[in-house]
Amino acid sequence: MTTAVRHSDSEVSFGFWLYLMSDAILFGLIFATFVVMSTNLAGGPGGTDLFSMTNLSMQTALLLTSSLTVALAHHAAMEERIGPALVWLALTFALGAGFLVLEVRELSGFVASGAGPNRSGYLSAFFTLLSTHGLHVSAGLIWIGTMMMQLLLKGPNSRVLSRLSRLTLFWHFLDIVWIGIFSVVYLPELF
Amino acid sequence: MQGLRPILIGFALAVVLTVLPFGLVATRLLPRDMTLWLVGVAAVTQIMVHLRFFLGIRLGSGDRERNGALIFAFVLLFIMVGGTLWVMGNLNYRMM
What we know:
The complex is a heterodimer of chains A (about 190) and B (about 100). By secondary structure, chain A is mainly α. Chain A has one domain: Four Helix Bundle (Hemerythrin (Met), subunit A), CATH 1.20.120.80. Helices cover about 85% and strands about 0% of the residues of chain A. Chain A contains 6 helices and no strands. Chain A is elongated and about 55 Å long. Chain A starts with a helix and ends with a helix. Chain B is mainly alpha-helical. Chain B folds into 2 domains: about 55 residues; about 35 residues. Chain B contains 3 helices and no strands. The interface between A and B is large, with 41 and 42 residues. Chain A: It is a multi-pass membrane protein. Chain A: It is found in: Cell membrane. Chain A: InterPro entries: Cyt_c/ubiquinol_Oxase_su3, Cyt_c_oxidase-like_su3, Cyt_c_oxidase_su3-like_sf, Cyt_c_oxidase_su3_a-hlx. Chain A: This is Cytochrome o ubiquinol oxidase subunit III. Chain A: Its main location: membrane.
C-alpha cells in the first residue's frame, strides 16, 4: 500500500515537473519575442521613460522574500508543525499579493499614460511577458489559499504534503522567471 | 529540500546576487557594457542557486528522470531562443 502510494506520488510529482519544464519553454519563447521586439518603439515611450527603480526594487524584494517564506512553510509542514506552516503560507500570500498590486498599479499606470500594449511592438511584447508572469502569480495565490484550507481541514497527510511540495516548486519557478524579467527587461533600461 | 540550512544558504546567496546587479545599475559605478554583462552573469548564477538550493536539483546524483527533463528543456530553450535571436538578428542586419 505505502509503496503504491509513494510510486503514484512520484509519478504525479514527475508529471508536474514536466509541466514546469514546458512552462519554462513558454516563458523562454516570450522572452525571445520580447528581445526581438525590444527596439520596435514606433515612436512611443521606451523602458527608460517608463520604468521606476523604486517600484522594481520593491517588487523584487517582495517576490524574493516570498521564495524564502514558501520554503519555510514547506519545511514546517514536513515536520508536521501546522501553526508555523500556516503563518509562513499566509506571509507568502501577503508578499505575493503585494507584488501583484505593485505590478497591476505599474501596468495600469502605463495604459493610462498612453503606453498600453497597442502602442508599439515593444510594449505589446512587454505586456505579454509581464501579464503572463502576473497570471501565474495570481494562480499561485489561489493555490496558496487552497493549501492553507487543506492544511487546516485535512491536516498534514501525505497527499496534502505532496501538493504543498508542488506548490513550493511552482512558486520558486515564478521567482526564477522574475530573475529573467528584471535582468532582461528592466535593468538594461534603467542604466 | 529537507533541512533548514539549504533554504537559508540559498536565500542569502540569492539576496547577494540580486543586490549586486541592482546596486551596479543604481550607482552606475562601471561602464554600461560591463554592467550589463555582470547583470547577466548574476542572473544565470542566481538561477543556478535557486535550482540547487530551493528546487533541490543535484546533477550526477538525484532523480535521473527529473534531471533528464531539465536538461532536455535547456537544450530546447537553447535551440529555440538562440535560434530565434540569431535568425531575427541576422534578418534585421540584412534589412538595414
